[in-house]
Amino acid sequence: MAANAAVAIARLGGHVEYWGRVADDALGRRILAELRAEGVDVSNARRIPGARSPCTSILVSDAGERLICSFTDSAIDPDPSWLPRSRIEQFDVIMADVRWPQGATVVLDAARRLDRPALLDADVAPPDVIRALVPHATHVLFSEAGLEALMPGTPPSAALRRVQMPTHAIVGVTLGPAGFLWREGADEHHVAAPVIAAVDTLAAGDVWHGAFALALAERRSLNDAARFANAAAALKCLRPGGRRGAPTRDEVEAALSSMQ
Description:
Blueprint: H1 2-11, E1 21-23, H2 26-37, E2 46-48, E3 55-60, E4 66-71, E5 94-97, H3 101-113, E6 118-122, H4 127-133, E7 139-143, H5 144-150, H6 156-164, E8 170-174, E9 180-184, E10 187-191, H7 204-217, H8 222-237, H9 249-259
Parallel strand pairs: 1-2, 5-6, 6-7, 7-8
Antiparallel strand pairs: 3-4, 8-9, 9-10
């Protein structure tokens, strides 16, 4: 998810580095080469010998919805000690996903100590993993499925209130065609999504998170960041393929202009 978000940021004109782990195999080299070709700096990604790189099979329905089946090799060392934490002060925003909790904890904590926005992409994961990561983030940004996995059967508004209670974080959830709902302090806010006929929703959430992170790095308000991210994700849904459908800055700005 973080890799897809990094590609989205690069396409939108941001400078972005990806810190993650792949195996030192043909697939790992291909993963990093593809990210590099998109303009993502992967010089601090780690290649682990003796393991197999993560891979995923994705099934997309005629309505654009998808089923994702992933494989991660247990031989990929979860130790986060190699992460270049001293460089975090050079960045405006740090974002982590839930796939590597040890690494996410380290970078989110470092970002908070430096008073940087520390964004957690809270997609589907074991509930204990999400609960453990929430206190480390300044912005906890759920997918609808991720919030449901954490609090089954709880309406999004009530679920966000419960997540926010023990933390001072901004908490929000992307709701697909229903837009973005979030809580900041005691107040609840909502920004609608553009109305589209989706072709493929694969990586739309990742594009949304990347666009939102970039907008915060550009010092946009939360409302403007949500509008920017909603437009970017909607454009992605109009195209087949995952991150290959991520839009450019000009495309997003044109879409926002047409919505005014």
